Amino acid sequence: MPAVSPDRSSTDESALSEQTPPNDRPHPDSAETHVHTPGRTAPAPAPQRDPQTLVAAGELLRALAAPVRIAIVLQLRSDACCVHELVEALGVTQPLISQHMRVLKSAGVVQGERHGREVVYRLADEHLAHIVVDAVLHSEETTQPADGGLRVASEQDGTRGTETV
Question: Where is the composition biased (Polar residues) (predicted)?
């Protein structure tokens, strides 16, 4: 066991390094130091992901993290649109839509196809719409409507929606 100095609660590093090789030291949160509540077993560890994959997922989530970009993705779920159609549908300015479209395009969320002077945008992948829809539905589930009822998610006719109970 590592030596602990009586005047401080931290481990004496020199004693620890002499007794235990660096790779053999237990992590403070490891199973060796943690005891679960009786009757509860530790969950199976999640599969390890490549760090580059996790970075890419974080960048994707950051690209989706603005309310206007969420609204754009929801709008593009129904059909491809050009910028002026998004301006009309969302009620925001053209420069703001263009700025957000650049972020979404660079993150690989949307793809643009030029038609004359216009660029028509569509979602690059339907999975992206599911991420946004699920986040919106979760937010709706956890907020209460003005009438005080509880909003819950429901599936009707194969489509997802919410209803107030």
Answer: 12-22
The domain containing residue 88 runs over which residues?
51-124
| Torsions phi, psi for 23 (to 5 deg) | -80, -15
Here the CATH number for the domain that contains residue 101 is 1.10.10.10
Provide the phi-psi class of 158: left if phi over 0, else alpha when psi is between -120 and 50, else beta. Answer: left
**Predicted confidence (pLDDT) per residue in 102-146, tens digit:** 999 999 999 999 999 999 999 999 888 999 999 999 999 887 665
Place of tokens 């129904």: 78
Decide: 132 and 70 in contact? Cβ < 8 Å: yes
- Is 59 found in the same domain as 120? yes
List the end-to-end C-alpha distance of the chain, in Å, as a whole number.
58
Q: What's the predicted TM-score (pTM) here?
A: 0.63
46 burial level (CB within 10 Å; 0-12, 13-18, 19+): exposed
Locus of tokens 């028509």: 120
Q: Element (H or E) spanning 14, and its range?
A: helix 13-19
- C-alpha to C-alpha distance for 145 and 67, rounded to whole angstroms: 19
